[in-house]
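Task card 7
Instruction: Convert sequence to structure tokens.
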Amino acid sequence: MNMSTGDDPISKSALIKGIIACCIAVLPVGSVIAIIMGIQAKKRAKLGKEAIEASNGTLRGKGAYMAGNICGLVAIILGAIMSAYYAFAMFAMFMALVA
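Output:
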């Protein structure tokens, strides 16, 4: 019999961090923060997966850690792209002012 005690809080936090990181990745300063939070989300998703597997079925949250892992990866990629974009835009504006 499966006696589930509830969802794993580590997996939930990975999902929340991943979602927030994806949302702020398009902001100028948020793109750098999104990279950091994305890495944290991926690490917490790994910890959540290990906790769920070690609980022998008493903890749930497989979907949360999988989604947190994916959102963390998306946030890292999007944050890197947006950071490069903003760096290029600032360089282009500086060169336009100097010229």
